[in-house]
Amino acid sequence: MPGRLPGWRVLATLGLLAVFAVVGWLVSPASSSAKMWREFAPPTGGHAITMSCSTEPRLTGSFLQPWLVDSWTAEQWDAELQHLREACISEVVLQWTVDSGANTAIYSSDIVVAGRSESDDVLARALAAAERAGVDVYVGLQVNDEWWRTYANDRTWLSAESELAQRLIDEIWTKYGAARSFAGWYLPFEVDNWHFEGPDTWDGLASFYAAVGRHAKHATPNLPIVISPFFNPAGGLPPAEWAK
Question: Cα–Cα distance between 107 and 172 in angstroms, integer?
């Protein structure tokens, strides 16, 4: 189905959780007034574990894919976000709003005219539920399966995606920017250690990030922009080279 990740991508998504959580912690440290405590059952032969949401470093963010939450009622949203808050998760990434390959959106878009891929306005309901729960939402821009074939090698394709991302920023912010839970932007295209081995691809991706980032900062000066690197230890660039 459009937007769903193949099996091997699930592992990448799990990895993204850790990456975003670290970024989220740096961006949004918990205040002393928002501390929560929870007692967990003791493990066999051990002692009870007390988890504090003021402990640092810690995981503070999680991803939600739109197709998963499409049919959720307001009550289901509230229950899910309450469970996340109890686990000290205060930030959620709605992983994408548009599939530019399938030309579909999860909200009523005037740019993406083929229609919504989900049955309701997922973005509006996510922001509303997050506002009720006191959770921040990072709004993802577009995904496109072509990314996994071209990466940053096709400058023409990447430039078109950059232009679309900038238009989506303007449209989404105009439609949903008043939501207090709207905390920032997420760029779904990931930089991994397998397909970005030389300056050409580095420069291509840097140009994409820079153009979209500049536009987002112009439209929403106070909102952070989040990206997710993906590292596969089975090959590709080693950590030190990938870090460069």
Answer: 9
Residues 6+ apart with CB under 8 A from 214: none
The residues, ordered by sequence, that sit 6+ positions from 49 with a Cβ below 8 Å of its Cβ are 39, 40, 42, 43
Structural contact between residues 51 and 86, judged by C-beta atoms closer than 8 angstroms = no
pLDDT by residue (tens digit) across 82-116?
999 999 999 999 999 999 999 999 998 999 876 66
**CA 217, 206, 226: angle at the middle one, nearest 5?**
50
Contact 186, 142 (CB under 8 A): no
